[in-house]
Amino acid sequence: MAAPETPADVRRWFLAQVQALWPVAGGSVSLRKSPCVRPRCAACAAGEQHASYVLYARRRGRRVTRYVPDAIAAPLERAVQNGRTLHDLIVEAGERYLRALKAQRRG
Ligand SMILES: [Zn+2]
Fold first, then answer.
1. How many helices and strands (H and E) does the chain possess?
2. Interstrand relation of 50-59 and 62-68 (parallel, antiparallel or unpaired)
3. pLDDT number for residue 3
């Protein structure tokens, strides 16, 4: 059987993975419809409004909503995907770190 991972092994693995995950973002990118500021807009008058991307996230329990220009929506979406992968990675790192500490204790 292979030697168990040490905490240092887990750290090395984790940092290498994280390095490849930039850029990251939390939350989600969605399309929302909202009215514009123009006084007599046909689209708003017809109830169609205007579709634009927004980033929804939570920071320390507070909801964060940010306008996202169309041209930036795709790269931001990739950052959000990386953010989800990063979260999974943290969970996996925790399990491996725990296993490494247990192996260390057993000597
Ligand atoms: Zn409008």
1. 3, 3
2. antiparallel
3. 83
pLDDT at residue 92 above 80?
Answer: yes
Q: Determine the distance separating the centroid of ligand 1 and the alpha carbon of 45, expressed in angstroms.
A: 7
Would you tell me how many other CB atoms lie within 10 Å of the CB of residue 63? 9
**14 within a domain of the structure (yes/no):** no
> Cβ(30)–Cβ(76) under 8 Å?
no
In the reported structure, the alpha carbon of residue 10 is separated from the centroid of ligand 1 by a whole-number distance in angstroms of: 53
- What's the structural domain count of the chain? 1
Residue range(s) defining the domain that contains residue 58: 23-106
| pTM for the full predicted model | 0.82
Report how far ligand 1's centroid is from the alpha carbon of 49 (Å): 5
